[in-house]
Write a structure and sequence with these properties.
single chain, 34% helix, 2-enoyl-CoA Hydratase, Chain A, domain 1
Length: 307
């Protein structure tokens, strides 16, 4: 018994006494510890003037690094080109002559705010509407060229877009020229109602007459090409090219999934998916487009074998 008592005393003497802490003391016991500070993501306001942040890789760099092709130097993401940038890239220097430069849209439905929106975009972009058409030479070969601009109401197709593209086809047919169209659109322009939908049939009919004359029509699909433009002249080309990873489709992904009650593949409605399923003939890097189009025009001009 004495042995057990001595052992008990010995254990208590050697054990370190536990300090009892109040509830509030335990709350603030770690006040001296420095918590890990995570750097907040940079907001657009934090981006230095003259710099851009890539939406894909998040890199921030000077705008000049994009170059005239407007390609991310880190991940090779394609930024959208406006009409004038695209024409400079494709047409031979000083060869482009614009058609219908002063054609402007009407407001057939008196849609609230439409006239003001058009006027604002005309001032901001320097365009009358969402497409520029004209004639030029590409690699020395004459052609009619049309370029849509996403900066003007996402290049939606209203009466002016439909009329200018139709006239471009008619000029190409009358003068027996090939036509090259760079498409980019969010679809029909809702502010013009049925008038915008009529453009699909009108342009398609002009494209059919051009085809019946045995003439070449090249479509270049750029990001994004959707809606009524996809459902009409964008997919009628004799040769359909596309830039890499361009979004191409008719209805939106979510609408399709809700309709068919199925999950769509991640790559669905992208250029690579469409090429795999036969809707696109060739995906061409932006820097190679002028040379690819030139080579196609050369072959179809009957001078393919000439040096």
């Amino acid at each position: 018994m004495a042995l057990l008592k001595n052992r008990y005393v010995s254990l208590n003497e050697t054990a370190e006494p536990k300090e009892k802490k109040s509830f509030f003391a335990s709350l603030f016991s770690k006040k001296d510890e420095k918590p890990e500070v995570k750097e907040p993501p940079k907001k657009d306001d934090d981006i230095p003037a003259g710099s851009v942040k890539c939406p894909d890789c998040g890199s921030i760099y000077d705008k000049k690094e994009l170059g005239s092709l407007k390609i991310c130097p880190k991940c090779a993401r394609y930024y959208r080109l406006n009409c004038k940038e695209r024409i400079r890239l494709i047409a031979d220097k000083d060869s482009f002559e614009e058609f219908d430069a002063n054609m402007q849209p009407k407001d057939p439905l008196n849609f609230p705010g439409y006239a003001e929106k058009v006027a604002s975009l005309q001032e901001k972009t320097g365009l009358k509407d969402a497409v520029i058409t004209g004639k030029c030479t590409i690699g020395g070969f004459p052609a009619v060229l049309g370029v849509m601009d996403s900066g003007f109401m996402m290049a939606s197709m209203g009466s002016v877009v439909g009329e200018k593209v139709t006239r471009a086809f008619e000029y190409a047919t009358a003068n027996r020229l090939p036509i090259v169209l760079f498409t980019c659109s969010g679809g029909a322009r809702m502010q013009e109602g049925i008038v915008s939908l009529m453009q699909m049939a009108k342009v398609s009919a002009a494209a059919a007459r051009h085809s019946e004359a045995g003439l070449l029509y090249i479509t270049v699909l750029t990001d994004p090409t959707t809606g009524g433009v996809t459902a009409s002249f964008a997919m009628l080309g004799d040769i359909i090219l596309s830039e890499p990873k361009a979004l191409i489709g008719f209805a939106g992904r979510r609408v399709i999934e809700q309709t068919i009650k199925q999950k769509l593949p991640d790559e669905f409605q992208h250029a690579e998916f469409l090429q795999e399923h036969g809707f696109v003939d060739k995906i061409v890097d932006r820097e190679a487009l002028p040379y690819t189009i030139r080579d196609i025009l050369k072959i179809h001009s009957g001078k393919g074998g000439e040096e």
